[in-house]
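pasting for ref
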Amino acid sequence: MEELPHEHLEHAEEAHHAVELGDGFMMKVSATIAALAVVAAIIASFETVETSHAIADKNEAVLKQAQASDQWAFYQAKSLKQKILEIAAITTAARTEEFRLEARRHEDESADIARKARELEQERDEKLAAGAVHERRHQRLTYAATLVHVSIAICTIAIITRGKRWPWYTAIGLGLVGMLGAASTYLV
């Protein structure tokens, strides 16, 4: 969740206004808004990092799938050539042994190619799983950042209502829930 470039100016303006009034509670509210804005920025940074990792892992998975597909196509070509050589060994008596040796070589190479293709598919699956983890983290961080942004908005209600305390307490509570949600993202 990206912050607008002018948001920090609005928070600074509210804090300046509270200082001018000399109201201690308003200064606490303004400081809370500033602290929540910093927390929101930090959570948004983690959210961006998780998005980047998710995209990178998914792209890597696509690359591994393409490489595995290439290996399977190569495997099929080798297998086809092996079968042709086996048929040639049966039908061409003069070169039977030569064709059988060549067919065995292709069979051995096919086994190595199939092993490599399976390894690439396993790497693909690992990258897909890692990407899914980063995607889940991104979603959790999005919710957490949203809660912190909403808490900032609710906190400003304390300023608008000229010192009512319930919006400030609500904002602190909601901000804490957002922070705990962000922190728990890396524990789950």
